[in-house]
Design brief:
By secondary structure, this protein is an alpha+beta fold. The protein folds into 2 domains: 33 residues; 85 residues, OB fold (Dihydrolipoamide Acetyltransferase, E2P) (Beta Barrel). It contains 2 helices and 7 strands; from the N terminus they run ααβββββββ. The chain starts with a helix and ends in a 22-residue tail after the last strand.
Length: 141
């Protein structure tokens, strides 16, 4: 009877260990993961300059120092790095309808402040029609 009793205790111990092990593993995983917050789940949040944006210029207000891209009103400051076609530029160089991209920081009050703004085609590329070879000009009749 002692052997039967020892076998039952051993099986009971192994069963308890198997039941408790997954729960202990999940508890350790929860300790290692940072808490989820809106700050961490926003795409691009870990990027150097902030949250990326791109689209077309919908409106420019030089007085208010704002740029509207889609439905976003993005504030521009003296610290904002602005370029157009790869060259330094200002907010006044923006043209409604042209492509724009960049990054912004979102303040606690919801205000979007641009850190970087790039006007013109992505990467500062010029449109294809301006990349013609000089020998192609004037040969058509």
């Amino acid at each position: 009877m002692t052997t039967k009793y020892m076998t039952r205790i051993t099986l009971l111990g192994l069963t308890a260990a198997l039941v408790c092990l997954p729960a202990a593993t999940r508890a350790q995983d929860a300790k290692n993961k940072p808490p989820a917050s809106s700050e961490q789940t926003e795409p691009g949040k870990a990027r150097k300059h902030g949250v990326p944006f791109n689209g077309k210029v919908a409106a420019v207000d030089a007085k208010a120092m704002t740029l509207t891209v889609g439905t976003m009103v993005i504030h521009v400051t003296t610290d904002t790095k602005i370029t157009k076609d790869g060259q330094p530029a200002t907010l006044a160089d923006a043209v409604v309808g042209e492509k724009v991209g960049g990054a912004y920081q979102k303040a606690d009050d919801g205000k979007l402040t641009a850190t970087v703004v790039h006007f013109g085609p992505k990467g500062g590329d010029m449109p294809d029609k301006e990349h013609k070879h000089p020998s192609d000009a004037g040969d058509k009749k």
